[in-house]
Specification:
The protein has 357 residues and is mostly helical. Helices cover 73% and strands 0% of the residues. It is globular, with a radius of gyration of 28 Å.
Amino acid sequence: MTRVEAPVPVSDPTEAVAEDAAIVADVLDRPSSRRRSLRVPVVSYLVTVFVLITLNFALPRLMPGDPIDALLALGSPTFATSPETRETLVRYYDLDGSTAEQYVHYLGRLAQGDLGVSTTTNKPITAELGGRVAWSFLLMVTAMAISLLIGIPTGVHSGWHRGKRVDRSLLSFFLSIQNLPIYLVGAVVFVVFAAKLGLFPSTGAESNFDVYSGLGRVLDIGRHLILPSLLLAFDFATYQYLVMRSSMVSELGSDYLLAGRAKGLTQRRLKYRYAGRNALLPVVTVIGLQFGIAITSIVFIERIFSYPGVAGYMLEAVGNRNYPAMQGAFLVLTLTVVTANLLVDLVYRRLDPRTAT
């Protein structure tokens, strides 16, 4: 008689997957793992900031000329030929020591929140930059908010209807915008809507001679903000749309969408709640990168509309070889970019915990 052996129990694959997921979740939920996942980007951020501070000090000094030459140049309002005057100014602006001594002095003042004194206006850089930082921040945040409202929904809709008329139309529109230089578009918009038609203010961030308060001032600032913010927003929205559309297209054949359709879920829910949400991760990375790209765009926009932001201030400082002003403006812009990338990195790690391991 042949002996029949008892069948070996086979584990359920779904139970194995659930156990693996539980193990991964347990690892990610451990305090040590969370601290380690936060320590890496924070340390990288601090190292990057130190490197930028050093470059911030070195780059202006690598340019030809110096602030005193620009201040006492022939034809300037402060023209002077006296060697005693030059020596006095060199000592006053702490340019008489060696490069290493100036660097140590710069770090010491920076640790105290002192950005120095402008060589052209003799005013503290912190006072001159204070209002300009607020205007640039308002412009950038407004433009980014508008771009998200434009780029993400259109990218979702276009990718969901890939190959159809609406997709071809949107793709052609955004590709056309991408290939147009922002300084050219800005100049055309300025001439047509501000100079010719007079629909929007042509310069500044608010009216200089009209007294506004409360809601009136808010509306006045908003009128000055419309054209610059829309130009910058469409510059942002182009890349957001292209990345969102590409990410949506990659999600169209996913199993969870087939399962959702089998369950009878609505197209709107599948498009935005499921496919759109999963396709959003690459756009988060793009948003962080755009803060760095925005510096170039915002320089042109602030110059075209005479917007009193940090970028225009930096260009004026470069022309005058104003070391403290250049250092202050460059530091504000680079810290904004690096901090935005750190926040995006932390948000990405929160949305996708696998990147934190």
